[in-house]
Amino acid sequence: MPKLQAAQIAVTPFQQNCALIWDAESGRGTVIDPGGDLPRIEAAIARAGCGIDQILLTHGHLDHAGGAMALKAALEAAQGAPVPILGPDRRDEFLLRGIAAQARQYGLEGMEDATPDRWLAEGETVVIAGHDFAVLHCPGHSPGHVVFASAALGFAVVGDVLFRGSIGRTDFPYGDHAALIDAIVTKLLPLGDGMRFLCGHGPGSTFGEERRGNPFLPR
Question: How confident is the model at residue 52 (pLDDT cuts 50, 70, 90)?
C-alpha cells in the first residue's frame, strides 16, 4: 500500500482491533472502531504523528464503538476541528444506543452510547487517508454492519464479518447466519484472492486464504 500505513490496536477486554490508517506523506489519518482504551489509541496516533480526519464504525457493538464519542471529543479539543463519526448502516442504531447499558452488564467502565454524525449505506465511498474505499453492507453479525474495501489498494477492513479461519457470530437475537455467508460469498470474495484484510479480532488474512481454507465457508 504505497504511502498508506496501518496500525492494529487491541482494545477492551474483548481484544478488539481498533485500526489506525494514515498516509505517511500527507500525515492525515482515520480511526476505525475505537471500542475503548483511549490512551492506547491516542498513543498510537502520537507515534504515527498524524492528524485524524474522521472516525469510522463498522458496526454498533460496544467493543467497536464504546469509545467513539470520547475519542471524538478528545481529538476535536486537540486539533481544533470537527472529527465526524461515520457509520455504520442505520440498522445498527439500536446497538449504538444500548452500549452504556450493556457495558454496565459486563462491568465495563468508560463506554458510551454513540451517535454518528452520518450513517453510511451500501454504494457510498469514504476517503481514508486520501484513498477511496467502497462501503459494503454486510449484515448477519449485526443488521447494519459495513465493510470498507479498496480494490485499488487490495485492502479491506471487515470488522466482525470474516476472520482468519472463522466468521462473525450470528447467535444474537438479531443475527442472521445465512445473510452473513451470503455477504462474504457475494460481496467480499469476488474482490479477489489477493485482497488483504484487517478484522475485528485476531490476525488479518487474505480473501484467497479464507476462500480456500476457512471451514465456515461453502466449498
Answer: very high
Looking at the DSSP bridge assignments, the partners of residue 16 are 11
Could you give the domains of the chain?
4-213 (3.60.15.10)
pTM over cut 0.85: yes
Give me the sign of the Cα torsion angle 82, 74, 1, 138.
negative
Would you place residue 2 in the very low, low, confident or very high pLDDT band (cuts 50, 70, 90)? low
Single-letter code of the amino acid located at 185: V
Task: Tell me 172's DSSP state.
Answer: S
Note whether 40 and 64 are within 8 A (CB). Answer: no
Residue type at position 131: H
Cell of 168: 462473525
Residue 219, pLDDT score: 83
Neighbours of 90 (CB within 10 A): 15
